[in-house]
Amino acid sequence: MAEAHQAVAFQFTVTPEGIDLQLSHQALTEIYLSGVRSWKKRIVRLKNSVITGVYPASPSSWLFVVIAILATMYTRSDPSMGLIAKIQEHLPVSTQCQAVVSAVLFSTMLWLLLIFTMRLCLKQLLSYHRWMFEQHGKMSNTTKVWALVRIFSGRKPLLYSYQGSLPNLPLPTTKDTVKRYLESVRPLMDDTQFERMTKLATEFETTLGNRLQWYLKLKALWAANYVSDWWEEYVYLRGRSPIMVNSNYYGMDFLYVTPTPIQAARAGNTIHAMLLYRRKLNKEEIKPVSTVIPLCAAQCERMFNTTRTPGEETDTVQHWQDSDYVAVYHRGRYFRLRVYHSGRLLSPREIEFQIQRILDDTSPPSKGEEKLGALTAGDRIPWAKARVKYFSSGVNKRSLDCIEKAAFFVTLDDDEQGMMGDDPAASLDRYAKSLLHGKCYDRWFDKSFSVVFYKNGKNGMNAEHSWADAPVVAHLWEYALATDSFQLGYNAEGHCKGEVDSSLPKPQKLNWEIPPECEELISQSLAVAQNLADDVDFHVFSFRDFGKGKVKKCRVSPDAFIQIALQLAYYRERGSFCLTYEASMTRLFREGRTETVRSCTSESSAFVQALDGEEPADVSRRLFRAASEKHQQLYRMAMTGAGIDRHLFCLYVVSKYLGEESPFLKEVADDGYGVSYCIVGDNMINFHISCKHSCPQTDAHKFGAQIRKALRDILQLLSPNQQEKEPKKTGESRPEVKKDQ
Questions:
Q1: Tens of pLDDT, residues 643-697
Q2: What is any one of the record's Gene Ontology cellular component terms (predicted)?
């Protein structure tokens, strides 16, 4: 009951003498400070909106233009060519002020015109992508002129400064998409199959395709991005199967470094670092991510205070402007942990102190509370119905609101994970599976992301996919781990640095009233999720024979090198090729997300067959170069809006709206491998391989062995005279985010 009393700002009792009103000054003070913090954030957002709205100019440039125009008036010259006089005639002010006011109005209009011109120029410059296709060391005159982008890009941009200047995603023609599609499936079909597919494609292009394309042209003119809203809705939010495993992805801790073995301390630093990132995000102090040109930052907006809400037909993504607490799960109980006190962010040591209070709390979970999170792990329709029936009022609604409106979700896990024990390879597999699905009820899979802290000090995260893609979450994760280890640090005992305010209220345990009928639904969702988790075959390994250093010495793109190695590994295992999906970002465009690179090409299949055949080494090397260049070409085309799959996807959506069926638009298989890799420095590549136990043709560990052999064989082919040496184990490591491939 103590927590309940702390949660209210006043109490009153009816007595014979009247009403005895008791106000909690501490609670009222917190309400006041919370309001002040909220208004400060509104002011910052308003200021940033002004700065971003006039970018690449600055608000102070308005004053410069006004002074310049006023100065010309005193020299008896008229740069306005009579416009100032025209404005002056229509001003209802005194004669002494007319000249100054009219000059200021003209200056403001001139300033806005200059901003519009600069932004138009910047948008045209950001729309130029031919620089990506030019050979290294050779730059065309057009690209040299394009380099003027730096002149128009302004100084010290905020996170969202470029948003208004980013170009819209271009809509490819149906003819080009069909042509590239046929080219992508050619190595997967025999002559008879390909002839049939060519007929279907030609028929589609000349009939239904043109009609569907007309609707997409209308959408491309009207919307900033003709793909992203449908992609979010139909690929993610309308999916009725579990988002655990099927959609959500994970991020790992450093593999070879654990800053502290103390669970609460690791949580204290990491949670504090993430809230520092949120502060920078709110103030737009994070620099826009850039390749040569800036990338769209729209996905960052819903990183914190966000949840996916289930519905019977479709889910929705809900985002709140602010939240002063995180939701914490430990041993079947849910807690509200406030991260602000007296108007300030808690220090890492104070968060550690609060986390330790939760770890030391021996109270049992409420009836039905322990496995409640399984509802977010099972099918979406049962969860949607249960949410309406059992969580739409009373104490359950208040507790559910607390979880959904939290800044993010935290799990304090009693297990120990990481690379450890006598079998570090197997321990990595267990670590990955734990982050992917845990016990199927100890994560809140609907939250934008959940952070997991293990008993031995390792951590990791699980992220929901609909609101953003893995690179956006990876930026947050790398910031948090770097800040935790290299800025905040720990004392000699492994605890967070700093002092603790003794007046901190205890974390508030959430209350639930779960009826037996709801417990049955929880059990059913858990059974579905457990079957899904048990079917996941996972293998994680660090390839340390070489990394991008030796690959670059062969003058080959590391990404193309790995993708072709994956083709070789699959062919050696199956004796055939398969449709291959590699994700490429389209964030060069406004609201861009991803596009598919179809990595299996005629060039890559020719190389694979030559290497495993009787062809001489020089022929195989030539074919590899062709395959590598083809892959790079496809990757650049995907990045610049000339991909295949997103256009076909949108054509498919339009066909469903019109009630039209096309045998040309078909689905993708679900019985292959998912491979994610992270190139770590010059001497290491980390691989994450997943498949399903229920598919008899796949085995994650066997495929991992094939990948190792393929990598070695290709490097040996490209550098036959280079003696391979084991790189020194420097302990180099970086965090990883595993995404679905």
A1: 999 999 999 999 999 988 888 886 575 567 999 999 988 899 999 999 999 999 9
A2: mitochondrial outer membrane
What CA–CA distances, in Å, run from 309 to 40, 374, 520, 591?
Answer: 29, 14, 21, 22
Structure tokens at 450: 């959940």
Give every CB contact of residue 622 below 8 A, 6+ residues apart in sequence: none
554/560 Cα distance (integer angstroms): 12
Residue 152: the pLDDT is 66
Comparing 415 with 153, the larger pLDDT belongs to 415
CA separation for the pair 265, 348 (Å, rounded): 8
- Which regions of 588-673 does DSSP assign to beta strands (E)? 594-598
In percent, the amount of the chain with pLDDT more than 90 equals 65
Helices and strands (H, E) in the chain, number of each type? 24, 19
The dihedral formed by the CA atoms of 687, 692, 695 and 701, expressed in degrees to the nearest 10: 40
| Sign of the four-CA dihedral 249, 272, 281, 340 | positive
Q: Between the CA of residue 452 and those of 263, 417, 436, 688, what are the distances in Å?
A: 10, 11, 11, 19
Give the distance, in angstroms, between the CA of residue 227 and the centroid of all CA atoms in the same chain.
17
Of 319, 337, 285, 295, nearest to 479 by C-alpha is: 285
d(CA 731, CA 734): 10
What torsion, rounded to 10 degrees, do the Cα atoms 434, 439, 444, 448 define?
A: 20
What residues pair up with 594 in beta bridges, in sequence order? 585
Strands (E), 362-491: 409-412, 449-453, 459-463
The Cβ of residue 1 has, within 10 Å, a number of other Cβ atoms equal to 5
Helix (H) or strand (E) holding 95: helix 95-126
Residues 6 or more apart in contact with residue 27 via CB below 8 angstroms: 6, 8, 9, 10
Position 150: which residue type? R
SS3 content of the chain, % helix, strand, coil (to 5): 50, 15, 35
CA atoms within 13 A on the CB side of 505: 22
Give CA–CA dist 335/358, Å, rounded.
Answer: 8
The SS3 call for residue 250 is strand
Tell me the pLDDT of the chain averaged across its residues: 88
Q: How far is CA 199 from CA 186, 196, 213, 269, 647, in A?
A: 13, 5, 19, 60, 20
- With tokens 């800025």, the residue in question is 487
Task: For residues 484 and 259, give the distance between their C-alpha atoms in angstroms, rounded to a whole number.
Answer: 8
* Pairing of β 536-543 and β 333-338: unpaired
d(CA 680, CA 687): 11
Phi, psi of 460 (to 5 degrees): 180, 180
Distance CA 327, CA 510 (A): 9
CA-atom Rg of the chain in angstroms: 29
Structure tokens at 638: 């995907």
Cα–Cα distance, 133 to 692 (Å, whole number): 38
Given a cut of 90, is residue 234 above it in pLDDT? yes
User: Do the beta carbons of residue 352 and residue 489 sit within 8 Å?
Assistant: no
pLDDT of residue 489: 94
- Do 413 and 442 touch, CB atoms closer than 8 A? yes
Q: How many CB atoms lie within 10 A of CB 699?
A: 18
Told to judge if 465 belongs to the known catalytic residues of this protein, a careful annotator would answer: yes
Catalytic residue from among 129, 465, 631, 688: 465
